[in-house]
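Example 305.
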Amino acid sequence: MLGIKYPVFQGGMAWVADASLAAAVSNAGGLGIISSINAGTEAVRNEIRKCRELTDKPFAVNIMLQAPNAPEIAQMVVEEGVRILTTGAGSPAKYMETWKAAGIKVIPVVASVALALKMQQAGADAVVAEGAESGGHVGELHTMPLVPQVVDALDIPVIAAGGICDGRGAAAAFMLGAEGIQVGTRFLVAEECTVHQEYKDKILKASDISTTVTGKTLGHPVRSLKTPFSKSFAKMEADPSTSQEDILAFGSGALRKAVKEGDRNGSYMAGECAGMVRKAEPAKDIVEDLILGAEKVIADFASRL
Ligand code: TUI
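Predicted structure in complex with TUI:
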């Protein structure tokens, strides 16, 4: 459907997923994804053009639907002739007709069966079912129960996301009925990933219990590394005298600060599998390890049956 060699999507991580990372993943045979959360719509347009110079392979753009410029981005990707879109943090139903008319493959990220069904009805070509093990904005269900329930409910392909970072996780996702996987956290340390070195170091040093979810009281839960920022954020949320506006103002721009400046007061969004990410390597090695690793554990297990 997408013209890619391996069913490996690189998560469209806000501020992180630029042309450099997306092209490296696409050149490796996966699906590189450019994030629409960057320094404005024109900056994203530039990343799309840059990506075309770096790869002749298919790549996608992720549209974060809660962003104020989402309607503008939704139009810009049509102008730029983008062939594949993923969406996150909401329902893209109102854009579907325009995108389908432009011949774009649309793959919404969903966190529930209800939204998955709605997306299939609206003409989605596939969905990414993302469990709450993921970094960034998360839903309620986790990958293990979410993926098979979405697979059972839909006729279109399902890509699993959340907590997948090596061949074992990839194999497990395929066993749940997924036809592909999406991986974010492990690509944060890819050589072609342009995040600040401090961000990479924090991921490489993380343990199994290094992430936490904040923002539940705001209706916008986000998983990130435990840092002084996440502690202060959680404290403000627990304090009834702090208004939602104050909390939002405190959080605003924190991800950009972490990604671009390695600021200790930044928000280091990361998934639960950060503790399994142990070395920086080229994106190609990550893509191949995910697929060859899955092949190996499936073959080893089959030989024991
Ligand atoms: O979108 C994501 N993950 C993200 S977006 C993001 S940007 C950001 N966030 C906070 C502060 C600063 C920047 C960081 N991480 N993942 C896809 C995803 N979508 N996960 C869950 C959902 C989701 C949740 C509820 C999709 C739809 C939904 O409800 C839809 C509806 O309206 O019915």
